[in-house]
From TrEMBL:
Keyword match Cell division: no
Keyword Signal included in the entry's annotation: yes
Organism classification: Bacteria, Pseudomonadati, Bacteroidota, Flavobacteriia, Flavobacteriales
Organism: Chryseobacterium soli
Lineage top rank: taxon: Bacteria
Signal sequence annotation: 1-20
Keywords for this protein: Signal
Protein name: DUF4440 domain-containing protein
Name of a matching Pfam family: Lumazine_bd_2
Length: 146
């Protein structure tokens, strides 16, 4: 009987962990779905009001990108043209803060464009996870197309 209780508790803990990670992943997956579908409303819903977007250039400089310009460019895209394929490699959580690392391959109009990695910082606000900060790398070499 005790074995059944222990197995049930372990399964419940694992299920809770997976569910928590799915909630953290949701705004990230929504961001890329919004890009693919040119859906600025879904994109906005995945971000906090003060979200920050940056990229690291080839020479190592950090370039700030205007989040409003990013949202505007997504809304002007043709549905299906922007396809960023990610792999969620790690998720770290402490209270209302989560850090997610996602290598990616980016396709434009069905053709491979570049690859790199995204680092997301998310915050939980009113029991909902939102993206606060994104920084990425972009390169054309040493990419493994999916």
């Amino acid at each position: 009987m005790n074995k059944i209780v222990i197995v049930t508790l372990l399964f419940s803990a694992l299920s809770f962990g997976q569910s928590a990670h799915e909630e953290i992943e949701k705004p990230i997956r929504d961001l890329f779905l919004a890009m693919k579908n040119a859906d600025s409303g879904l994109l906005k819903s995945s971000l906090t009001e003060t979200a920050v977007l940056q990229t690291i250039t080839k020479d190592g400089a950090v370039k700030n990108e205007d989040i409003k310009d990013f949202i505007s460019s997504i809304s002007k895209a043709v549905k299906g043209d922007l396809d960023e394929r990610i792999t969620i490699e790690s998720i770290q959580v402490d209270g209302n803060l989560a850090s997610v690392f996602t290598p990616y391959q980016f396709y434009y109009k069905g053709k491979f464009s570049h690859c790199g990695a995204n680092s997301f910082q998310l915050v939980q606000q009113n029991k909902v996870w939102k993206i606060q900060y994104i920084i990425d790398t972009r390169r054309k070499e040493n990419c493994h197309e999916q």
